[in-house]
Specification:
62% of the residues lie in helices and 10% in strands. It has 20 helices and twelve strands.
């Protein structure tokens, strides 16, 4: 874990090294000041020599100034190194997530990843700054002050050894008890963030069903759980301060008592006792700072483990050593494919799929909910890998391709349409960064999106809010289709991506596809028969298997499932903007 985190320092290594170096020099100046103070008292004030007072006073002033300069430099470098580490960690986590397959992402909740990039990274940043400054300053101060104390009076300094043993035992007890609690705390942070994210993203549904009280109660329960764990953890940490104060005042009383006896006996001077008190406070403050460092490390250790968990996650899918970069055509072959989302679980989503699709064909895919339609098409662009068999695009196994090259040629409009904050043009250029305005407009005409874009005052410069909340579902779907078309793919997959579009517009889109991109293989996943009945062939899925694969007319005669869906949709009154079959026939 430590090795993984240290690797993220990268360009801030110099600052990470300079911070403790300057801290050491700062401490050395501070440690020497009480020693010079003793000389002022013994050789200047008690001896009545004002020149010695001025001389040692000047040395003290110089040391104080040097300590200030070294302290400022140490602080600046520590801040630069810790902030740089946090920046690199966030970038590395984000870049790592981009390499994950869908199965990797499924292991981490969205809220969990957000917490890791925010709260957990901030905890590591704070602890890093404390380690570079306090964790260096405290032990150096402790050792130097102890050395000076033993140099002044070895017998009195033995008191510190007892104090160190007591504090070490107390800190060990506190750390053991709180580490487990903080591990649980950050897991509960994920639950809290998940509750907020879910509520905000689905606020329209919450209000439509008047479930504000329910959501408030759910969030309150998550917050109360987090509160209880923090109270328990902080309650244990609160033991640190009383133990520290007990040791501090105990040492002061012991040194005052025994120091007075030594002065009377002539074994110790007044100046030395004054210096000793300064060193005592330095030692005790160092112990207190060390206890704070241990507390911070205890808190951040749980965060660090969660961050490293993401950074060390190995993507399930990777490019081969010598990947193919050219997709010859849009032919698709499924050779006895078996697939499950959790490999080895025994729960098969797709079973023995054997299909062969020619380049340029339009294939409709239909079936009941959960039959495996979306799972099937997700294998074409290698969003997941098969358990058994193989999927070939352009005559080659998808696992032989460079994934970026494959996905450039296999455009997917997923079930859940996503638009990003920015202009319509910005969103369209996700399909191709260098697309001109004319090319974007042409893609929008094919997707029947141009008709509503032209009604906006700013047209293609219209701002899209996060998630596309300021456009309708149908408009969002058409923009996503246009975005995919800009890639000029060899395979276009529409995964139920016209469900919010009326049948008339749906028909226009399909007609445009047939006329303008005849060479592109089109896989259309749909719930409506009207969306796929004009396809070259229609695939009927049932319980993860191929139930039928033929033309619309042939399936009506030979496939029971397809015929039942057709009759339910037509005899029941047709689609919402299409007359029933009986009306068409004049009955």
């Amino acid at each position: 874990m430590i090795k993984t985190l240290l690797a993220q320092i990268r360009q801030y290594k110099t600052a990470a090294i300079l911070a403790p170096v300057f801290t050491v020099f700062e401490v050395l100046m501070e440690v020497l000041i009480p020693f010079v103070t003793a000389s002022i008292i013994d050789e200047g004030i008690e001896a009545g020599n004002i020149h010695q007072v001025y001389f040692y006073g000047g040395i003290m002033l110089l040391m104080a100034l040097l300590s200030l300069v070294f302290g400022v430099l140490a602080g600046r470098n520590a801040a630069r190194a810790s902030s740089g580490l946090a920046c690199n960690l966030r970038e590395s986590i984000y870049e790592k997530v981009q390499t994950f397959s869908f199965s990797n992402i499924d292991k981490f909740s969205t809220a969990g990843l957000v917490t890791r990039m925010t709260t957990d990274v901030t905890n590591v940043q704070n602890s890093t700054q404390m380690i570079l400054r306090v964790a260096v300053r405290a032990p150096v101060m402790l050792i130097c002050s102890m050395v000076m104390c033993f140099f002044i009076s070895a017998r009195l300094s033995a008191i510190f050894l007892v104090a160190i043993v007591i504090l070490a035992a107390a800190l060990l007890f506190i750390m053991v008890k709180t580490t487990k609690i903080f591990n649980e705390v950050f897991r509960k942070y994920d639950d809290l963030n998940a509750s907020v994210q879910e509520n905000v993203s689905a606020i329209r549904v919450v209000k439509a069903f008047v479930r504000e009280d329910y959501e408030n109660n759910k969030f309150t329960r998550a917050a109360q759980t987090l509160y209880s764990l923090f109270v328990k953890a902080e309650g244990n940490l609160a033991l640190n301060n009383p133990v520290m104060m007990l040791v501090v005042y105990g040492c002061i009383l012991a040194i005052s008592w025994f120091g007075a006896w030594f002065i009377v006996a002539g074994d110790l001077t007044t100046g030395n006792l004054t210096s000793l008190f300064s060193y005592v406070m330095n030692v005790l403050m160092s112990l207190m700072m060390l206890s704070m460092v241990f507390v911070m490390i205890t808190m951040s250790a749980a965060s660090a483990r969660r961050i490293v968990e993401v950074l060390n996650e190995v993507p399930d899918m990777s490019d081969p050593d010598q990947p193919e970069t050219q997709v010859q055509d849009g032919s698709i072959d499924f050779d006895h494919v078996t697939f499950s989302y959790k490999h080895g679980s025994g729960e098969k989503t797709l079973r023995d799929i054997d299909l062969h699709i020619k380049s340029g064909e339009t294939i409709g895919i239909i079936g009941g909910t959960g039959c495996g339609k979306s799972s099937l098409v997700s294998l074409v662009s290698r969003l997941y890998d098969v358990d058994e068999g193989s999927v070939r695009v352009g005559g080659k196994d998808v696992r032989c391709y460079d994934m970026e090259a494959l996905r450039d040629q296999v455009a997917v409009v997923l079930q859940k349409n996503v638009l990003f904050s920015g202009t319509i043009l910005d969103n369209l250029r996700w399909g191709r960064e260098d697309a001109t305005l004319e090319e974007c407009a042409e893609a929008c005409r094919l997707a029947c999106a141009d008709e509503f874009i032209q009604r906006f005052p700013d047209r293609y410069d219209t701002w899209i809010e996060q998630g596309g909340s300021n456009v309708s579902g149908g408009q969002k779907q058409r923009l996503c289709i246009a975005r995919a078309l800009l890639k000029k793919p060899k395979v276009l997959i529409l995964d139920d991506s016209t469900s919010a579009v009326d049948t008339a517009t749906d028909a226009k889109i399909r007609q445009a596809f047939a006329q303008k991109i005849p060479g592109t293989t089109k896989l259309i996943v749909a719930e409506r028969i009207s969306s796929v009945q004009d396809a070259d062939r229609i695939l009927v899925m049932d319980n993860g298997r191929v139930n039928g694969f033929d033309t619309h007319e042939a399936l009506l005669k030979t496939n029971k499932i397809y015929r039942e869906i057709y009759e339910a949709q037509t005899q029941g009154g047709g689609d919402f903007d299409q007359p029933a079959q009986t009306e068409k026939e004049g009955v």
